[in-house]
Amino acid sequence: MTARSLQSGASARERAATPSLWSRIWQNDAPGYLFLLPWLIGFLGLTIGPMITSLYLSFTDFDLLTSPDWVGANNYMRMFTNDPKFWASMRVTMFFVVFSVPLKLAFALAVAMLLNRGIKGLPMYRALFYLPSLLGASVAIAILWRQIFAGDGLVNKLLLVFGIEGPSWISNPKTSLWTLIILSIWQFGSPMIIFLAGLRQIPQDMYEAASLDGASKWRQFVKITLPLLTPVVFFNAIIQTIEAFKSFTPAFIISGGTGNPINSTLFYTLYLYQEAFGFFRMGYASALAWVLLALVGIFTAFSFLTSKYWVHYDE
Amino acid sequence: MSTPIQLRRLVKAYGDIEVVHGIDLDIDPGEFTVFVGPSGCGKSTLLRMIAGLEPITGGDLLIDGERMNDVPAARRGIAMVFQSYALYPHMNVYQNLAFGLETAKAPKAEIQERVQRAAEILQIVPLLQRKPKQLSGGQRQRVAIGRAIVREPRIFLFDEPLSNLDAELRVQMRVEIAKLHNDLGNTMIYVTHDQVEAMTMADKIVVLRAGVIEQAGAPLELYNNPKNLFVAGFIGSPKMNFLTASDDGAGIKVAGNNVNLSRSVAGTATLGVRPEHITIAEGSGIKLADITVDLVENLGGQTVVYATTSDGQPLNIVLEGQRKVELGSTVGAYIDPARLHLFNAEGNAI
């Protein structure tokens, strides 16, 4: 036997002894994929599949009863050039986002700072303040809110005690959206809990060093607390803004699904719902959904891009 | 600027629990005082009371003769260096140094000048634009000290400032802080649990235990004349040996051996012997005991012998130079009687 044939014999034996790539993957990774499968089926079937379908439908005319008709970019063209209701819903949603998110975050931070002062019964307060976050988006709370701000509701009854006759907050186009903003602020529990955790992370030494330097509580807040809390502010701002863009239930319940008075509570998602399930314009509704996704995506990308200028990460 | 500090019956209590029990202490102008003691002895609490970070429950704190109990921290003329450095991570070194002066609304030109001067003293000028996370431990410590210097305070307080550094850097920074004290001449109070730091840096060491001062004095005074067993055991490295001694009227006996001492005690006592004061060469002082050698460590400059007396009491010896000592051998331990410390049953020096 030559040296060459000896070598080729040895490598053949090695090949026989070494399991193939697929069998190795099967042996080593199969249990992992098996455990992943339920999630993967859900993700592909319930998220990716409908997303691709809706992207396709956004370029069609589809009423659920007949098969979709390809219309190209017509839905998108109509949205931006010939649909005042689209712009009305966009204005309402932007107004809601611009006012509800900062106000909610400011309120959440204020309460978190109060709770961070080491008060007695902190777990109880924490749970109580968190409760509205759990209940806030529910139908029941939206109905309750409608009663509170109705013409003969609790708010006006309280105002009457002081001799003030309040309007019907919900049916007045100037105030109706503000009732929804207040409802949103009332659900401050979730960002508050995150702020509280962030505040706990700031070392006490820094405040002590600042107080030795003569820094007032306000200066300590502006120069130490806020900058060190920016990662948490950033996180909360992103999450709450996305939530605000997606807000639907309160506007649907309070306006009875109409977005009235005078479209003043016509949230983008409510308009989308009306188009999809009120008029069965599934193609147009899909296009609306994709525009909302793009809008949220642009906002989030912009936030991440600008974050390096104002978010301070330690270490 | 040299400022005296007086503590008069200073008390700190959290609710019903008193942790600092009526401390009396005088710190002279320009003195470098070190508070030393085991964890929980109240040394940091005492420092924080002086700084104004902890309210004083009772007694008086006088700075330059003025009662400071109710004066806010910022108006005591004190700067403090924290164990964690407490640098603001979102500010660069310059901004960290300038923070106190900006808070005090000092003119911009003055801030710039004082920051520059402090940075030059601490040799951190090239680091001024860096963020704390871009600095090493030693550099952070310098910035923390710099932040104290720029304020030009009357008194510097240091709360275990070197405990986060590695051994080599600790020695280096120790020297630098001592130099800084020499250059600035301010009154400084330094808290540590490391007695080597205390011995090397202090003009005055204050040994604390459970909220009371066990002994205060110059480092060598505490080393040579410890008032009690606690101070004797705490000051000095390696730790002082403690041997049980008895006196039956015929002289003091240690491990069955008569120790020829002019002093006497009633009943049992403790004999304190520093490892570096013992020799194994016959004729060097009086014989302390016969010992069996358990372990020998050759450190090059010193030889450390771990031994046991005939009645089983451990005895550590530090011999100068490189010495050949056989493991398991029995040798005599000798000492100059003037170097012996005798403590009564209550642990107080006789």
Explain what the structure shows.
The complex is a heterodimer of chains A (315) and B (350). By secondary structure, chain A is an all-alpha fold. Chain A has a single domain (83-310), classed as MetI-like (MetI-like fold). Chain A contains 14 helices and 2 strands. Chain A is globular, with a radius of gyration of 28 Å. The termini of chain A are far apart. Chain B is an alpha+beta fold and 350 residues long. Chain B has 2 domains: 5-234, Rossmann fold; 241-343, Nucleic acid-binding proteins (OB fold (Dihydrolipoamide Acetyltransferase, E2P), Beta Barrel), CATH 2.40.50.140. Chain B contains 8 helices and 20 strands. In chain B, helix 2 (93-103) runs parallel beside helix 4 and helix 3 (108-121) packs across helix 4 (137-150). The longest helix of chain B has 18 residues, at 167-184. The two termini of chain B are 41 Å apart. Classes of the chains: A mainly alpha (315), B alpha+beta (350). Chain A binds chain B through residues 203, 205-206, 208-215, 219, 223-224, 227-228, 230, 312, 314-315, and chain B through 51-53, 72-75, 78-80, 82-84, 86, 88-90, 99-100, 103-104, 133, 147, 151.
